[in-house]
């Protein structure tokens, strides 16, 4: 499904970006917010770099939007366009998604896309988030997340859409859907994606408490599939891709569709309602107040 031309022509937005680093366990949550700010890089600078090796049929997508690959409308639009191009190229059988930014895969949704914006803009942004998920979760390509740093919230969602997840074995990194920590509710398709991966009860606890897991905890619950030394993440992803591509495409693709189609159909049949629910929720005065307080806290930590 192509993105509308209106999405393709968006300019850049300046703003604050944030990343939460935390330690967590099933019994408690210890969160220490870390301030990360940026003046958004020029909108003409590519936020995505794709290296496609036609001899292997494998593309490596490098997210390169400093400092933390925050999922803004601009970023999501460029990301979706690149995935769509690869999907249409029948010679591309596998996609590895990784980060060019140190210590982070993606810090998740750009808070400034949700704060102080018109309902129309919020709806446009949320449709782009949906589009990213739909393109990856339904992709015919083998998709592997090479997670070389922390991956909270939307970054975790992106990695969950992939067929396989390899994470750097560094206890300082974290991954999880921690939306409730910011007073935001993860929508049903976030929940379903995680439940399909780690099970209902683990998802229930994780989402209610907004847990972020360190790599060893993430491996234990099945949130990631493999841990490797930090400097071996991409190499291991490339080696793992070879094993996945040894399976006949048609058999793997049909099996993947069979496993994921009910979840995909649930969103595709409720996209507009989901957008309206998001816009109604995120524009509430109480939610905007929570986001404003969080941003003010970030400013104080910087000063």
TrEMBL record:
Localization in the cell: Mitochondrion matrix
InterPro entries referenced in this protein's UniProt entry, alphabetically: ClpP/crotonase-like_dom_sf, Enoyl-CoA_hyd/isom_CS, Enoyl-CoA_hydra/iso
Gene3D superfamilies named in the record: 2-enoyl-CoA Hydratase, Chain A, domain 1, 6.10.250.170
Principal location class: mitochondrion
Functional pathway: Lipid metabolism; fatty acid beta-oxidation
Gene Ontology terms, MF aspect: delta(3)-delta(2)-enoyl-CoA isomerase activity
A biological-process GO annotation: fatty acid beta-oxidation
Enzyme Commission identifier(s): 5.3.3.8
Top-rank lineage group of the source organism: Eukaryota
SUPFAM superfamilies, A to Z: ClpP/crotonase
Catalysed reaction equations from the record: (2E)-tetradecenoyl-CoA = (3Z)-tetradecenoyl-CoA; (3Z)-decenoyl-CoA = (2E)-decenoyl-CoA; a (3E)-enoyl-CoA = a 4-saturated (2E)-enoyl-CoA; (3Z)-hexenoyl-CoA = (2E)-hexenoyl-CoA
Pfam families listed in its UniProt record: ECH_1
Keywords: Acetylation, Fatty acid metabolism, Isomerase, Lipid metabolism, Mitochondrion, Transit peptide
GO cellular component: mitochondrial matrix
Role played: Key enzyme of fatty acid beta-oxidation. Able to isomerize both 3-cis (3Z) and 3-trans (3E) double bonds into the 2-trans (2E) form in a range of enoyl-CoA species, with a preference for (3Z)-enoyl-CoAs over (3E)-enoyl-CoAs. The catalytic efficiency of this enzyme is not affected by the fatty acyl chain length.
Protein family per UniProt: Belongs to the enoyl-CoA hydratase/isomerase family.
Complex and partners: Homotrimer.
Protein name: Enoyl-CoA delta isomerase 1, mitochondrial
């Amino acid at each position: 499904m192509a993105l509308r031309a209106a999405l393709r022509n968006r300019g850049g937005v300046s703003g604050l970006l944030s990343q939460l680093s935390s330690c967590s366990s099933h019994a408690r949550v210890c969160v220490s917010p870390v301030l990360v700010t940026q003046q958004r890089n020029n909108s003409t600078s590519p936020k995505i770099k794709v290296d496609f090796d036609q001899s292997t049929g494998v593309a490596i997508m490098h997210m390169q939007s400093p400092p933390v690959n925050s999922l803004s409308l601009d970023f999501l639009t460029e990301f979706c366009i690149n995935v769509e191009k690869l999907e249409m190229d029948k010679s591309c059988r596998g996609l590895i998604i990784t980060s060019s930014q140190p210590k982070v895969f993606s810090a998740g949704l750009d808070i400034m896309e949700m704060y102080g914006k018109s309902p129309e803009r919020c709806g446009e942004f949320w449709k782009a988030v949906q589009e990213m998920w739909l393109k990856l979760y339904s992709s015919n390509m083998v998709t592997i997340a090479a997670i070389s740093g922390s991956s909270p919230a939307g970054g975790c969602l992106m990695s969950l859409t992939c067929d396989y997840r390899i994470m750097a074995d560094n206890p300082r990194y974290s991954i999880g859907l921690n939306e409730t920590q910011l007073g935001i509710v993860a929508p049903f398709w976030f929940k379903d994606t995680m439940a399909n991966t780690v099970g209902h009860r683990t998802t229930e606890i994780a989402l209610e408490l907004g847990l972020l897991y360190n790599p060893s905890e993430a491996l234990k619950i099945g949130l990631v599939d493999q841990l490797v030394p930090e400097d071996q993440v991409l190499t291991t992803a490339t080696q793992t891709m070879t094993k996945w591509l040894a399976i006949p495409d048609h058999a793997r693709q049909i099996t993947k569709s069979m496993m994921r189609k009910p979840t995909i159909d649930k969103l595709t049949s409720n996209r507009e309602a989901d957008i309206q629910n998001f816009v109604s929720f995120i524009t509430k005065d109480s939610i905007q107040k929570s986001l404003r307080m969080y941003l003010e806290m970030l400013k104080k930590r910087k000063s």
